[in-house]
């Protein structure tokens, strides 16, 4: 990914963060990904339990549970569209993170009470609206415009936050499945509180600009005109990622149901791997595969264009679902061995690393300083539409055999890849113009 120089960043003359470093990067990057790590611990911890909780404890039919799951995750990614604007125009990104995280923590603790189930989901989604776009939009403020480390900052950030997603199913999933749902949901709330404490305690390592409200007058006319030229590209990429996420987000929905009912998870006599534990493999594989992929990409020399790399990732995820379709067909109604699920997750995560960190970096790099949180919110709006689509697609699970369903998801991911390839050349032109 090429480094994009923002005219607005130099025009604003924003004060820089302290230059002390950890692990070869500004200390603020560690503070940001540790904060996000605990937020992801709370999110994935709750998500690992959500479908199981609805179908087993609340006795919801599978199709209804899939719709609730899809609507909740979609709404959680719709609120950042408004939250990003509020952060940029009224609160400042630091205040938005603190307020949003506090609201989310309250929602996670509310999940411990059955009577508050729907209000709790709404509370978490509302808090996420302020938190989600405001934190990652601070990453590039840690670097000078010509700092070569900017090109890998989001990859490191993405790896760091997955630590929380690794821990979540083991902690929240185990507590919820073995000791009671309220224990798992309560642990998710505690994780969110820890993230807030880290962020507040490490604020000294973040630039002053994250405390400030960015006004429209602060942006130059040239900066606004440049962003409007980029906007068409960004909206087009969002539309294609919506399609991709329709298949991608089945990991916590129908794939979780398949793992629970159609996978032999026994390991030796008398012990079965909890279904929620397999959801920890995806973020764990992010740790393992990211250094390998970065090394391969460095050896290639010239980096693959961002949108083309995203298309490759979508094709790889399509291949992962083809694998599940073949395994389901071969099983013939019997349970498949859990090794096949692990293999699926390896291929699936490889595709994820091609598309999601690349997209986040693209939107972060093309964002003007005065619309940083808003631009990141635009990227996450793909998750809104994608999760809504995933909920609708997930409702097909009970209407067709598993092999046909997974093959359909492969088709959805392949469609997204094909659409991304169509905009690859226009995207290269925009990026080439911005780099000059």
Which key phrases capture this entry?
436 residues, Growth Hormone, Chain: A, 4 strands, 73% helix, disordered N terminus
What does this structure look like?
The protein has 436 residues and is mainly α. It has one domain (23-435): Growth Hormone, Chain: A (Up-down Bundle), CATH 1.20.1250.20. The protein is built from 15 helices and four strands. It has helices at 7-12, 27-57, 62-91, 93-110, 117-134, 150-179, 181-201, 221-248, 254-261, 281-299, 306-331, 338-366, 372-394, 402-422, 424-435; strands at 21-22, 25-26, 263-264, 336-337. The strands form two sheets. Strands 1-2 form a two-stranded antiparallel ribbon. Strands 3-4 form a two-stranded parallel ribbon. α3 packs across α5 (117-134) and α6 runs antiparallel to α10. It is globular. The two termini are 15 Å apart. Mean pLDDT is 82; it is low at 1-18. It is found in: Cell membrane.
In terms of topology, how is this protein built?
Blueprint: H1 7-12, E1 21-22, E2 25-26, H2 27-57, H3 62-91, H4 93-110, H5 117-134, H6 150-179, H7 181-201, H8 221-248, H9 254-261, E3 263-264, H10 281-299, H11 306-331, E4 336-337, H12 338-366, H13 372-394, H14 402-422, H15 424-435
Parallel strand pairs: 3-4
Antiparallel strand pairs: 1-2
Domain Major facilitator superfamily (MFS) profile: 28-428
Protein name: POT family proton-dependent oligopeptide transporter
Pfam families: PTR2 (PF00854)
